[in-house]
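Hi again,

Forgot to attach this to my earlier email, sorry! This is the prediction with FE2/S2 (inorganic) cluster bound. I've pasted everything inline since the attachment limit keeps bouncing my files.
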Amino acid sequence: MTEPAYPVDEVRDDLIPLADYLDPEFAALEARNLWPKVWQQACRLEEIEEIGQFVVYEILTESIIVVRTGEGEADVAAMHNVCPHRGTLLVEGTGHVREFLCPFHGWRFGLDGANIEVVDPADWGKCLKPGETDLKHIQVGMWGGWVWINLDPDCQPLMEFLEPMASRCALHEFDKLRLAWYKTTTVEANWKTTMEAFMEFYHVQTTHRQMLTYTRDYSTSRGMGRHGWMSYEFATGLPLGRSERLDPQEVGDFREYLYEYGKQFKHDLASMQTERGYQAIQKLRELPADTPPEDVLAKWGENIYTAAIESGAGWPEGITPEYMAESGFDWAVFPNTVFLHPAVESVLWYRFRPHPDDFEKTIMDTYSLERFAPGEQPAWEHQVFARPEDGDYPLIYQQDFVNIPRVQKGMRSSGFAAARTNPMQERAIANFHRRLREFLIDPHAGDNLMAEDRLPPPGERNGDLDPTIDRVVEFSRKPGPQ
Ligand code: FES
Ligand SMILES: [Fe+2]
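Structure tokens for the complex follow:
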């Protein structure tokens, strides 16, 4: 076998070759070997609640109709959005139809893709074989309230592909979440550069410095098979507390401290906290001012839970601190999905896709999902902005959007040889690049890769890494100026 163009062992925990971000050949390889063969999150099930409701999912040059075909939970089809007559795209965006009508010459198709009408069929004589005039189905699956698609007929079953993430998030009931808001924008960076800004918490201490008053930000990160897991070493939920990076300070009235924390999340992130959760913090004022912090926290949890139950929204059963610790704070689902789920009833979910015309641009979707009481889901609309600054993204996203294009541009500098990822806090990023390169060589090589990427014991941490970066230049394969 010939040497792969991008060998897996070029990626180390502390080093990522720049080809992955800058080389058009690498992007072309992804277009050939990744996107046509990997499971992808196509849409939220609630976007296709009614029979005949559809969403067009686009990935590079592929356009796929995801449509509800019946009332059963699994009655969802995914088909190429192309007319078998002359290749016209049948539908765009989202919509609700009884059947699909090609706008060019009027061929018609049922919701299941079966051809209903070829206009003037006798003209073809016996040329058109049965099935040739139907829409072509692709693999489809459902998990977590999402529809997932795969263009590869021989792909691994979805539930296997999602492990070990799916098991570690099994109690969260993501399928009961609904959209609070949904925004899409285009970011001036490769899809991986953009995604990786949301795959680590190492940047919080500088980029989101305002959070340190309420966030013990030192994070931990692992590869979990193909996927990535991020959390905080001591946390079974939110890493709430004053960061050790700041001067120590007496907190005083812990109720007020929590109130300010909740306010910051509400204004700066507008996600990972329901309105009920925010109200639950206000209710803590009913406690005496000198209530010890542990008791305030316990009461807060109790208030959130009680409010969820009383409202009718409900709360998942069986969640324990041990489960939360295993489940972590944040997952990166291979290849292009990231979600943050420590608040259980409000989850921030991202999807990153390469722009079809420019591999140094990302189409980035942000979904804020919540567990609403019946009838309380607000009307939502899918907002699409040409540039991040055109959307009213809250402060934390704005801070990230400033960095991302600067990283993409900076990596092109002749003074930069490779990305030097933090082997502890950015470990999931290195794992992702190894798994990506592996997938590009053989999409099934990681199918049985379930094992957790175990961290070396503290005394030996990263002692095995080559302290020199002599091979960095060799690894970098930076393409010349374009
Ligand atoms: S291209 Fe669709 S009917 Fe002609
Ligand atoms: Fe960030």
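DSSP finds 13 helices and 20 strands in the chain. Residues 46 and 178 are 7 Å apart (CA to CA).

That should be everything now.

G.
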